[in-house]
Design brief:
globular; alpha/beta; 6-stranded mixed beta sheet; 13 strands
């Protein structure tokens, strides 16, 4: 059904050793949209996607992919779904062009290989064995392998990891085209600018649950909120200069971030407070609140 979600999850629970790594998770990803799933390492993103791909069976809850059970209906789903793993999962002894030709023969209506090769810049290393490719080259090949069968739904795990800026923007352009063609794209990434640029819907997952969702604009609450960043002496006490509605954090010693309604008066008060303590504010920038700010506010700033 064209109007139904491409991926629909209700109350998903998956346990390892008695511990729930996915805990009553519910989400939906629609056709013709890019859905970005964000979260810190260990949040449950990969396990959730593996349940969607039929690689793991849920302990509780339901998972439907293109209206089908990804475990029970795996044979019917495989020709309709593309999967790009972060580590590629590619055979190392073959050459890229040979691999894509082999995969194309498995589908009734494969994508034109010359187009994929050109769009992803594979021609320069098409006859080099996979084991000799760089990380970014392997990622581009893995993406081509995921798309060769003209999938209705594609799962992309860190699609631009290890890529140079030119390759990354080529991949982003291709993802947008897939969306415009009506393909559902489920994207997991740690690159906030990638999610900001591509996602129609963003879901933030932590401790096995969806803790926030919406468009990028909704999540960053783009309006009066701005982010002020500056550097100064570590441990400087300027909180009294902030006023109500502003939050100050020190992500690293001597580097500060203020979020809220930042205006020239706030900057003036902070500058005066620093000067009173014989300190200067340097590298001062003001910009809108970003998805990375939201992500860190929701999931914390400490390493895990």
């Amino acid at each position: 059904m064209p109007d139904s979600p491409a991926v629909e999850i209700h109350g998903l629970v998956k346990r390892y050793g008695g511990r729930a790594v996915v805990d009553d998770l519910t989400l939906a990803a629609r056709r013709g949209q890019v859905t970005a799933v964000l979260g810190p390492n260990g949040a449950g993103k990969t396990t959730t996607i593996e349940c969607c791909e039929g690689l793991r069976a849920p302990d509780e809850g339901t998972v439907r992919v293109l209206g089908l059970d990804p475990v029970a209906d795996a044979r019917e789903l495989r020709p309709r779904v593309g999967v790009m793993l972060q580590d590629g999962g590619l055979p190392t002894a073959v050459r890229p062009r040979e691999l894509l030709e082999h995969l194309a023969r498995m589908y009734a209506h494969p994508r034109e290989l010359d187009d994929l090769v050109e769009r992803l810049g594979l021609a320069s290393f098409a006859r080099t064995s996979v084991r000799r490719l760089s990380g970014g080259q392997r990622q581009r090949l893995a993406l081509a392998a995921a798309l060769v069968g003209r999938p209705e739904l594609v799962f992309l795990d860190e699609p631009s990891a290890g890529m140079d800026p030119q390759s990354r923007h080529a991949v982003w352009a291709l993802v947008r085209e897939l969306r415009d063609e009506g393909v559902a794209v489920v994207l997991t990434t740690h690159l906030m600018d990638e999610a900001e640029d591509l996602a129609d819907q963003v879901l933030v997952v932590d401790h096995g649950k969806v803790i926030a969702q919406g468009t990028v604009r909704e999540l960053v609450q783009d309006g009066e909120d701005r982010t002020l960043r500056f550097e100064t002496r570590p441990g400087l006490d300027v909180r009294a200069a902030l006023g109500d509605g502003l939050t100050l954090v020190e992500p690293s010693p001597g580097t500060y971030t203020v979020t809220g309604t930042v205006d020239p008066q706030v900057v003036a008060r902070l500058t005066a407070a620093a000067a009173a303590q014989d300190a200067l504010l340097t590298r001062l920038t003001v910009g809108r609140r970003t998805l990375e700010d939201v992500f860190l506010d929701l999931t914390g700033r400490n390493l895990r």
